[in-house]
Amino acid sequence: MARPRSFDRDHVLHAAERQFRASGYNGTSVDDISAATGLGRGSLYAAFDGKHGVLMQAMGGYFARLGEGPRKALAGPDEGALERLHAYLLRAVHGVPLAPDVPPAPDRTGAACFAAKMALEIGASDPEVQRLAHDCFAVVRTAVAECVRAAQRNGDIDPDADPDDLAYLLLTVIRGSDVVGAYGHSPDRLTSIAESAFALLPRPRQS
Amino acid sequence: MARPRSFDRDHVLHAAERQFRASGYNGTSVDDISAATGLGRGSLYAAFDGKHGVLMQAMGGYFARLGEGPRKALAGPDEGALERLHAYLLRAVHGVPLAPDVPPAPDRTGAACFAAKMALEIGASDPEVQRLAHDCFAVVRTAVAECVRAAQRNGDIDPDADPDDLAYLLLTVIRGSDVVGAYGHSPDRLTSIAESAFALLPRPRQS
DNA sequence: ACCCTTCTTGACAACCCAGTACAGAACCAT
DNA sequence: ATGGTTCTGTACTGGGTTGTCAAGAAGGGT
Lengths: 207, 207
Description:
Chains A, B: InterPro entries: DNA-bd_HTH_TetR-type_CS, Homeodomain-like_sf, HTH_TetR, Tet_transcr_reg_TetR-rel_C_sf, TetR_C. The structure is a homodimer. By secondary structure, the first copy, chain A, is mainly alpha-helical. The first copy, chain A, has a domain at about 60-200: Tetracycline Repressor, domain 2 (Orthogonal Bundle). The first copy, chain A, is built from 9 helices and no strands. In chain A, α6 (about 115-120) crosses α7. The radius of gyration of chain A is 19 Å and the shape is elongated. At the A-B interface, α6, α7, α8 and α9 of A face α6, α7, α8 and α9 of B. Chain A binds a DNA duplex through α3.
């Protein structure tokens, strides 16, 4: 018995995310968000509680999308774990897609980790953002570590290696590729970096 | 026959860099810079041409400091190249110090690469910043590649490995450690990541 | 057809910010 | 001492930003 919303919540949050990515948090005004999403100021404040609310909800959505990637790509039987890790690494360095049906980033600005980017800009003064970024890292890290353990059980990775250390290292490579790839380097270069990292994973000694 | 400056140029730029690091570019006002440096607005505009000028000069100073590190730490004879690379990597993941006599970062906000941070925030709309960040990456990358080549000549790294690929990978690890270490992870963790990366460098096959 | 609830829109006021201009202070050379 | 030149600090202005408010539009139940 009331007027329904005329916008799609996720669509709005994706547009806002694109805007935040392109201009940064402090570089985007509420009017920018309004223009990017098509919503008026009032609707934005009513539905998302203003600029910061939009950011938090957009980051929440990003976190959910980000978590799906490693969980789906890395979970599975021990057999093939190394191959899954390989495939995930190659995809991860190219970023997290906005939607499942738009796999490649529209341009390079969409590739870097949204959470990391926001955390670097305002995390120092915004504990919520900081914590969300930390969670984003943790979900990737734990999934990778679990996959490494599976590969070790299958005899594809040196059992003496510490899975958590390797996961931290791979997470670092993924995050670093965001930065390196952000400007001035081609996607091919990122793929090459991912391949190098994968190739250097410690294989079991052949006795 | 004129009044001399009453401030130290580098000191001002360091203070501005700290401020930019802490609040981001768009998050710091000219008044913030004024407060952090002690200079009035007029002096800032006369000496540095406003906010953007301060940023560019601060980034220029950072670039000079950044370049010194790998050049001094990595250059040298083939013998010991691997060890130099090891030492450099361990230091690099902890950031570039503001001054040679203040080696450790005061707090974690000072650790991440200043150029990368600024490029991520405003590089998309500021080609100058983008280029400067690219140069910062290149100087590290080429120095690392050169050191890898030296280590290869000395028989410490697999001669079949591509030095440029390895340099890109190590650069990525260093950049990634900035992001991972920015919030929520201890310096020990960064050291551990650097050690893991170093340990995985391809050694020559023992025949 | 009517009404009530919710959404949407545009405008408004208070505030902050970048950049400029002007007046005063400091310093050095003569 | 004095003058000229440069630096320093502050006040001002125009533009942009945020958050709020009230009036209008739209839809569903009765």
